[in-house]
Amino acid sequence: MRHQAFGSKTAAAAKLSFGALLLGTVMAANAPAAGVVRCGPADPALAGHYYLDGDDVGSELLLRADGRFEYLLAYGASDARAQGCWRRSDRQVVLETARAGESGLRLLKRVSVDGSSSPESLQPVPPTDPDEGAQGDTVVVALGHAPEGASIWVEYADGQRTSLPVDQGGRARFVRTGMPAVRRVGVGSSRPDAPVQWFANEEAGRRLFLIDTDTAVDRRAASAAFRRMELEVMGPGRLSANLGQGVIGRYERR
Questions:
Q1: First-to-last CA distance in the chain?
Q2: Which residues, other chains included, contact 222 with Cβ-Cβ below 8 Å and sequence gap of 6+?
């Protein structure tokens, strides 16, 4: 049977339209790494590389100690893959390719001014919102594809933090007399247990911040073999899962 193991193949400077921004795409030229999935703590006793073998089905499950997982199911001539976060819940291991209320986000350095994906359309994000003028007492943060209940956070260089809900235009506008430099901006979720996702600011004079989804993360989630899978802990180094069509998969750690 064909079985592919893990790792073997591995504005317009004068004015920027927020409407165009929020409908545009995030380009690879923007800041990297912000959209990397960060997972919660996992049970180290369950971490390891698990294998399932059968006459027609082969599968591998890699549970990393940092809470991330990789999954492969090979059936006939097709492969199904997934990656995301895992956690233990009593007698179950729960795999999730996208945690509820969370999406890959990144702070944009450039934006397409005409909504196309051509390199020629990319322009640096202006340091200030042209609609606010240059007085420097206003910080605007725009969030593309804002999830319901999202909030925007700003942390200033003097340590003060403040937050506002996202308005209908996908923006939050912060006004402060004698506005200090912004140390970082963040996106909060409607879930009370969800941490704020922060983005560091490296430009002391910047007053305009554009945050949008990481399209690479979105594509991985859309093509994943599943959104959520639950496996039963059968004993040390042994897991069991319903693989569909009446197939019960039994995984052993090696």
A1: 20
A2: none
